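Exercise 3.2. Students should predict the tertiary structure of the chain below and write it as structure tokens, then compare their answer with the key that follows.

Predict this chain's 3D structure.
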Amino acid sequence: MNRQSWTKTVTQNRIKCEQILSISNDIRYAGVFNEYGRTISGKIRPGVKPIFSPDLVRHEFFAIASMMRLRGETSKTLGSVEFISITHKKINILLFYKNGITYYVTINKKNKSNTLLVNKIKKIITRA
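Answer key:
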């Protein structure tokens, strides 16, 4: 990928991250990384204290990217992944996968309407 197309990819995904954050104040972070866990773009809600250190973010994204690649093997039988939800004591994580790119969204635990968020996020991701 040349510099110009990389810049375009980063810009397009930064806009999508901002759009995802605008859906709900309960969304803490929206980020995008490639199939190797390399961050393409990400945006944390202003005023939100990050939970992960930069090293933990790299490990998390690499682990998720590896899992998503492995899920690709079963997609041939089960169909493509629509989204994955991970529930922790402190936050919920929603993962969306499209064309080798993972969208990683963290949500405050108090939010109970993940179905509505999932549908809105999917619309943003699938826009050209």
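Discussion points: The chain has one domain: 3-126. The longest strand covers residues 91-98.
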